[in-house]
Amino acid sequence: MQMADCPSIKGKDGARVGRIDAFVQSLDKNFMVPVGGAIIAGFNDSFIQEISKMYPGRASASPSLDVLITLLSLGSNGYKKLLKERKEMFSYLSSQLEKLSECYNERLLYTPHNPISLAMTLKTLSEHRDRSVTQLGSMLFTRQVSGARVVPLGSVQAVSGHTFRGFMAHTNNYPCAYLNAAAAVGMKTQDVDLFVKRLDKCLKTVRKEQNKESNASAVENYNKTEDVDIEEMALKLDNVLLDTSQNSS
C-alpha cells in the first residue's frame, strides 16, 4: 500500500500469468502501528470472504482500532506526505548502502522494479562459510536492527512436506548470499544513518574474526608442513648414516 502504484495493480498482471490467491499487507509496515494485524486483499471476492469467515471472534480489536486512530490523526494529506518522504528515504538508503558495499568489495543489487527493498551482496562473507552470513544477521538483530535480514546461499527448508531450495531468496539458485533492507513508511534520515553505521561495525567485526581464523589456519598449516619437512630430513639423515655404516663394514 505504501507504493505509488498499489501492489494490487501489479498483482493483477501476476495473476494473469500465474496464481495469486491473495496478498497480505502488514499494518505495522504500512501504517506505523504495533505489530499484530494485516490487510488481506485479492482478486476473487468469494475467496476473500472465506478468509474473513475464519475470524475466531475472540481476537483483539486493537489492530483495527490502531489503524483507525492513525488514519484519523494523519488524514489523507498526512499519509500522502509520508509516502513522499518514504520515496526520498529509499533514494538516500540506496546511496548509503552503495557506498558501504563498495568499501567491502560488495555491490548493491540492481532491482529497478522494487521501489521499497534493496539488497547488498555478501560474497566475501559466504566465501568462507555460511556461518559468517548468519552471524551477521544475528549481530544486527541484537543491535536493534530488526528490519534487515540476511539470506544465506543455497539454504534448503522443508515446510509441510514441500522442499524449498534457496529458502528466503527469490529464486532456487541465487548466485550469492545477500542482505536485504527496506525503506518503509516513517523512516527518517537519522534512521538510515544509524542502520548503516551499525551494519558497518558488524561487517568490520565479522571480517576481523574471519582474518583471525584464516591466520590461525595458515599457522596450523605451516606448522604441519614444517613437521613434515623435519621428518623427511630426519629420514634422509637416517638413510645417509645407514649407508655410511654399511660402506664401513
Automatic annotation (TrEMBL):
It catalyses: O-phospho-L-seryl-tRNA(Sec) + selenophosphate + H2O = L-selenocysteinyl-tRNA(Sec) + 2 phosphate. It holds the Pfam family SepSecS. Signal peptide: none annotated. Gene3D superfamilies: Type I PLP-dependent aspartate aminotransferase-like (Major domain). One of its GO terms (molecular function) is tRNA binding. Belongs to the SepSecS family. Homotetramer formed by a catalytic dimer and a non-catalytic dimer serving as a binding platform that orients tRNASec for catalysis. Each tetramer binds the CCA ends of two tRNAs which point to the active sites of the catalytic dimer. Converts O-phosphoseryl-tRNA(Sec) to selenocysteinyl-tRNA(Sec) required for selenoprotein biosynthesis. This is O-phosphoseryl-tRNA(Sec) selenium transferase.
